[in-house]
Amino acid sequence: MPHLYWKNVRKMMKTSTCTIENSKITIDGNLIFESENLSFPDFAKEAYKHLELSYPKFHKMDNLSKLAFLASEMILKDEDHSRTALVFANRSSSLDTDHKYQESINSQDSYFPSPAVFVYTLPNICVGEISIKHKMQTENAFFVLDQFDEKFLNDYSEQILSSGKADKVLCGWVELYQENYKAFVYLLTL
Amino acid sequence: MMKEIYITGYNCVTPLGFNVEANWNSLLKGKSGVALHQIIENSTGNPEDQNEGAFYASMIDSEQLNKTFSSSFENQDFTRLEKMLLLSMKPLAEQYEFTEETAFILSTTKGNISLLKNQTELPEGVYLSVLAKKIADFFGCKTRPVVVSNACVSGVMAIAVAKNLIQAGKYKNAFVIAGDEISEFVISGFNSFQAIGSEPCKPYDINRNGINIGEAAAAVYITAEPTGNEKFRFKVLGDSAINDANHISGPSRTGDGLYASIRNAMTEAGLSPEHIGFISAHGTATLYNDEMEAIAFNRMNLQHIPLNSMKGFYGHCLGASGLLESIISMESARHSILIPSKNFEETGVSQPLNIIKETQPATIRYILKTASGFGGCNAALVLEKC
Questions:
Q1: Which residues on neighbouring strands pair with residue A21, listed in sequence order?
Q2: For A48-82, what is each residue's pLDDT tens digit?
Q3: For the whole model, what pTM was predicted?
Q4: Of A39, B241, B244, B287, which has fewest CB within 10 angstroms of its CB?
Q5: Residue A130 main-chain phi, psi, to 5 deg
Q6: Which of B146, B161, B247 sits opposite A145 (nearest CB)?
Q7: Interface pTM (ipTM) of the complex?
Q8: DSSP readout, B177-218?
Q9: How far apart (Å, rounded) are the C-alpha atoms in residues B292 and A103?
Q10: Which residue in chain A is spatially nearest to B40 when comparing CA positions?
Q11: Cβ separation of B133 and A128 shorter than 8 Å?
């Protein structure tokens, strides 16, 4: 049963939801995958195998991109998303990778800045990864907020939909810093 | 019918001046903020590589910043970036009020990233939302701040976000503020990509060889309810931010995302190419970015429209660049003067562009502002001088 989101007279519909936290992936409340006592990178690897995602670029992504990618895959599937916008947000921006990159330049004795790490020191890269996978040349936005604010994401998405710039919006809260992570990704239509 | 959205005030803090007037006068004189600075302390530890950490960059003089800040603010307990942001916000905060329906939008890519150096635990100040709240609280903001962090298109997008949030009905007006500072973090990263130029950057030129990083802060006031007493007014007519869906660090070869962003923004504005009076482009001076832009502008049939990149004056100020460059393009329209694309001599892109070579008079009604960045993001904005 889809959830309804009301505002003024227009109604937006949330058609499916994916949650990833505590080593569990659920879709619309149904458990899809679970693994125990794994670090996030190992959990992500196991989930990738279990879900039979054949996309080698996944292994090059940073943890935030892996989290956003896995949750989005569950919802976007193989459907046409040429008019689906992406509106994502989190609290810790790209600080997980920022911290790793900073460690590579802290000391003169081990000064090894890597472009492959540096490119992920921006939170919107995860949105770029999803866009590439699904060839989505569509509206993109990434916000950093002090806490999850579904109403904010929905208000912004509704404006994109009502201006005719997209037919659907994939919304997501994708928070990750080291072993603390949570993804809550959902699809909105008018 | 969507609400009409107006920009009625702005300010900026850059190496060329700590207010708009000082910046405009420096630009008319052709002054650039770009100079050679030692940014990375002898990164290899090898005395023979003494010059390795020196880069051309557009940097604010810290002594001057501290002096100006201490004469304007009582509390001095702020980072360098926070001082830049507070100084850029001050005149707008004095002129306009924060109400329950005033949004506060910060555009930044790296915020206080310098605080991360040699830390094992994350300092609170590196969180972008903490930075935004600190600035917002200082001025008595009553709503929860929003941070736009979309790489190098953030500054352009922040204006679009304000427009969209006001049109969505949640707010009546917005303060949009943008800032990024030069850091070892950012310079070493762009350097690892071999994207930094070995001389002052030359956007669109045949001899261009990379970017100069810059730093700045900028602030804009946006409202759906102008009083009519403002010194000037620009209507935000259209916006779009489309992803290339091609590569996370390389510009698209076809310019798809930028082309679609411009097309959407112009469609929303109800304009055709001949209406556009001036393009404030991104022009970073990397080989591939500038080429991609030339392709996108030609696909949109905008190759005859006068165009500049401000990077030769300010370098690439990351999350601040789009907002700063929008402000300068509005100043161009107000003064009816086009500013040249500094350091451009001979075209080095495969498609024709009308790059401004000299300061010249022009009547400008419609401005197109564009930007592109990592993650395949692009943004376009159409402004009308009212």
A1: A24
A2: 999 999 999 999 999 999 999 999 999 999 899 99
A3: 0.96
A4: A39
A5: -65, -40
A6: B146
A7: 0.96
A8: EEEE---HHHHHHHHHTT-B-SSS--TTBTT---B-EE-EEE
A9: 34
A10: A105
A11: no
